[in-house]
């Protein structure tokens, strides 16, 4: 049976409504013709072969035409609605669901172009929030991870570490479901211990079609709202840290383990190049967001890729740096917000960020004690005067998840805070409809 013939397969409940649709179109055509001929007969003494018909109808010709057209229009609307209902019922079982999905996708597709740089769990947290307001998201992820499953895959298979990429894809998934749960599943048996299924799939695909194409294919399966790119495709990329005491160490995992004061981070090799897609995304961005995430191993490595700092600095979009809420063992112990900004600029360019986003919600004594005892960590201290002297504008708000133990950013609070500022400051000059839709969306989601 041909593709066209399948539309008339028994059980689809399509045939009858296609027939009604055809009948209504014929009725409309007849009604219009009836009006045209009737008017001609009224205006001319010439008689056609339909003269006897119109003689019988007399003054009721136009009335009959109107009734035929009205009935045909009613049948046309009913048939279209019924055909649509039966098709959507087969596809999803709920026609309302498809309409809502189409509307939501159309609305999100007109959202702002956001480029986010980061890695680890911090980036995933932000992406989960952003995807509720726009699908025009470009997540650029560090690929220097050498620990856990990613490190083993990198060493055994010679591909870029897939762990942070996988987390971002799952975070951007249209709806996080069992499929995402499966991709995040970690094996417990000896040979595959600690490997996640998603990591293995990405690694296997990358060997066949390349790392970027592998990301795209998994993204299609998850129906991700945005794009995910590695910071660079350099396969042997590594991080090197030089500490304040003069010592050096190579490897992301070892850097944190040293627990020393970091003076400078560099890449090996130092000629890593970005993807052209990343540079284009920066150029077209409405906003550029740095973080949240580990300062030296998730955020700064992006600025060590050739051309990235200059592209961000030259971009017309505002740049937001989302500072961590707590200091981090092995990287930023005793760091204030000013120290974060200084480290960022020391590895990139002066005044690289326009805004620093900080949490001002109080952290409970119980939470602070947990971090103090475990890692000697504490809340990042804020000195607005010093920050303002550095020409970076301070933005503060309640950005925390309601968690009595762990101190972490809230996905929705963080995304909503940044986008609300963007729409008030820079996005207002964009297309009126796009501005209106984003403002509407911000007010819809709690």
TrEMBL record:
Q: Which InterPro entries match?
A: CofD, CofD-like_dom_sf, Gluconeogen_factor
Q: List, alphabetically, the Gene3D superfamilies matched.
A: CofD-like domains
Q: Which GO terms describe its molecular function?
A: LPPG:FO 2-phospho-L-lactate transferase activity
**Keywords per UniProt:** Cytoplasm, Membrane, Transmembrane, Transmembrane helix
Q: Which residues cross the membrane?
A: 17-39, 60-81
One record GO biological process: regulation of cell shape
Q: What is this protein called?
A: Putative gluconeogenesis factor
Tell me the organism.
Proteinivorax tanatarense
């Amino acid at each position: 049976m041909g593709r066209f013939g399948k539309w008339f397969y028994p059980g689809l409940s399509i045939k009858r409504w296609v027939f009604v649709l055809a009948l209504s179109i014929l009725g409309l055509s007849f009604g219009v013709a009836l009006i045209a001929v009737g008017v001609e007969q009224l205006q001319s003494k010439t008689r056609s072969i339909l003269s006897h018909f119109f003689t019988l109808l007399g003054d009721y010709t136009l009335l009959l035409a109107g009734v035929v057209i009205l009935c045909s229009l009613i049948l046309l609307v009913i048939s279209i609605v019924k055909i649509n209902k039966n098709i959507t019922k087969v596809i999803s079982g709920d026609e309302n669901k498809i309409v809502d999905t189409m509307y939501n996708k159309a609305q999100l597709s007109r959202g702002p172009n956001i480029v986010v740089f980061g890695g680890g769990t911090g980036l995933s947290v932000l992406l989960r929030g952003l995807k509720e307001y726009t699908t025009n998201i470009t997540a650029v992820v560090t690929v220097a991870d050498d620990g856990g499953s990613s490190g083993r895959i990198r060493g055994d298979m010679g591909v870029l570490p897939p762990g942070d990429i996988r987390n971002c894809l799952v975070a951007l998934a249209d709806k996080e479901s069992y499929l995402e749960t499966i991709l995040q599943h970690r094996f417990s048996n000896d040979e595959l211990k600690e490997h996640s299924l998603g990591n293995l799939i990405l690694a296997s695909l990358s060997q066949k079609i390349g790392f970027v194409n592998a990301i795209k294919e998994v993204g299609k399966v998850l129906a991700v709202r945005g794009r995910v790119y590695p910071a660079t495709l350099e396969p042997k990329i590594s991080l090197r840290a030089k500490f304040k005491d003069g010592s050096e160490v190579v490897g992301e995992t070892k850097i944190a383990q040293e627990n020393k004061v970091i003076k400078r981070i560099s890449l090996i090799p130092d000629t890593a190049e970005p993807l052209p897609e990343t540079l284009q995304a920066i150029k077209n961005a409405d906003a550029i967001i740095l973080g949240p995430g580990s300062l030296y191993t998730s955020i700064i490595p992006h600025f060590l890729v050739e051309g990235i700092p200059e592209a961000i600095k030259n971009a017309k979009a505002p740049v937001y740096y989302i500072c961590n809420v707590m200091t981090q063992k092995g990287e930023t112990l005793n760091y204030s917000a000013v120290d974060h900004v200084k480290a960022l600029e020391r590895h990139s360019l002066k005044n690289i960020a326009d805004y620093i986003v900080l949490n001002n919600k109080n952290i409970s004594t119980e939470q602070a004690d947990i971090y103090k005892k475990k890692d000697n960590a504490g809340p990042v201290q804020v000195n607005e005067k010093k920050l303002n002297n550095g020409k970076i504008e301070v933005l503060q708000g309640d950005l925390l998840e309601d968690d009595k133990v762990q101190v972490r950013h809230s996905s929705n609070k963080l995304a909503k805070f940044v986008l609300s500022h963007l729409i008030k400051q820079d996005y207002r000059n964009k297309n009126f409809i796009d501005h209106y839709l984003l403002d509407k969306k911000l007010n819809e989601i709690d």
